[in-house]
Known about the structure:
Layout: H1 4-17, H2 22-29, H3 33-40, H4 48-58, H5 62-65, H6 85-94, H7 101-104, H8 110-121, H9 138-143
Helix pairs in contact: 2-3
Amino acid sequence: MIDPMRVGAKIATLRKNANLSQEQLANELFITRQALSKWETGVGVPTLEMLLALSKTLNASFDEILCLDDEVTVDPDNIFAGHNRKFIIRQIISGDLQVDLPNVFYQLSPSERLLILREIREGRLKIDYRDLESRLTLSEIKYLGG
């Protein structure tokens, strides 16, 4: 899974290591500086064609640019810091990111909580919901069948 915020940070780092300004790199890629800025802040992601151009221009592999080999680490006090929220939720659901769910559950939005609870209810996310019970709303407890 690709985290747009981490990819953006990687593009910015590679650009700076190449001693290029946003304007210079944007000109080499035939895009606007604003488009590059969106990539670097994780608001947008480059297309496959642009990844190829970035790879050539910055002398970096796709894997490096997309952070595919990087280990995902999170701060327990803010699991979303430096990461795209959807990416973190997908990583938790897939089991690729281990977090102490009862202790970080308060950090989730209502819709993110529902996604996690659905996975618990369907048996795809292994956690004893009783560990979460004190952190759940009444409707969330009912949703889990409690």
